[in-house]
Amino acid sequence: MEQLVQKLKEEIIEALNLSEMKPGQIDEKAPLFVDGLGLDSIDALELTVLLEKKYGLKILTAEEGKKVLYSVHSMAEFITANKKA
Amino acid sequence: MSEFYIISDYCSIRDHEVVLHGKSVYNHADSGLQDFLTGIYQYFAVSYPKFYKMDKLSKLGFLTAELLLRNKNIHQQYAGNEVGIFLMNASSSLDTDRNHQHSILDRNNYFPSPAVFVYTLPNIVIGEISIRHKFTGEGTFFIQEKFNPPFLVHYIKELLAQGVIQCCIAGWVETDGQNYESVLYLIEKTDRPNAGIANFEPTSIQRIFDNEK
Fold first, then answer.
1. Contact yes or no for B52 and A18 at CB 8 A
2. What is the pLDDT of residues A38-64, one digit of tens each?
3. ipTM for the complex shown
4. Which of residues 39-78 of B touch A (CB under 8 A)?
5. Which residues in chain B have Cβ-Cβ distances shorter than 8 Å to A19?
6. A17 and chain B: CB distance < 8 Å anywhere?
7. Are B81 and B136 in contact (CB under 8 A)?
8. What is the pTM of this model?
9. Which helix H or strand E contains B131, and what residues bound it?
10. Domains in chain B, start-ordered, CATH in brackets?
């Protein structure tokens, strides 16, 4: 899980062009949107694409998206729970 | 009372150099466009993380406006809805359009990037500047084969005369591959003749555009 969280942080930085940021600066439990990294709706789409492209996982509803994209930790949990073997 | 329209200031970014009010304030001849723009951002200590997410056209327009408005009290002088933005270029957002097209060519690996797609309109640069400075006035992006001062001046003077805007940022913001050129002017109303750098006329706009080359 810890390894996945670290990998996700690096992928998020690359996907969202957060080039001023280092993985260690991202609190995996902090909310990604509004507070935390201050991401916006376009970033939410970009993270949704990231999950599909890198992990083959689709977010099916807006409600699920809110839960999954809440934090790096919740994204990692979603990947762990749903990734195909 | 007579009303005069003037060019209060101007800023250009082209040929690896930033010129503000006629004075060179930054240059870096050995960098590609992305590195050059990031260099400007860092050199002038601009703090706006969203900058990194912008495409080249928006970065160029954003930085030119940022430096043009630096150390001015535009935000105190005018309400947000009194400030307009009127830009022009020849290549629209083609550079980003091509990036987007390239990213969707492979139907078996079809993952269009929302962060790229969102910049496939040239007027997004107006939005980026407006969000940064909380400007909510008129904004239009014109596509012309080359910089067209008579057209731009005529359009803006009408809006100033009607009181739709009191002030505006206007000019040319162009990127295509590694080619780029941005010249922005700050246009204001005044009751004093011969105030500012020059009167807001096609000849003075063109002269500034040409002289700095």
1. yes
2. 788 899 999 999 999 999 999 999 999
3. 0.74
4. 49, 52-53
5. 52
6. yes
7. yes
8. 0.90
9. helix B124-133
10. 4-211 (3.40.47.10)
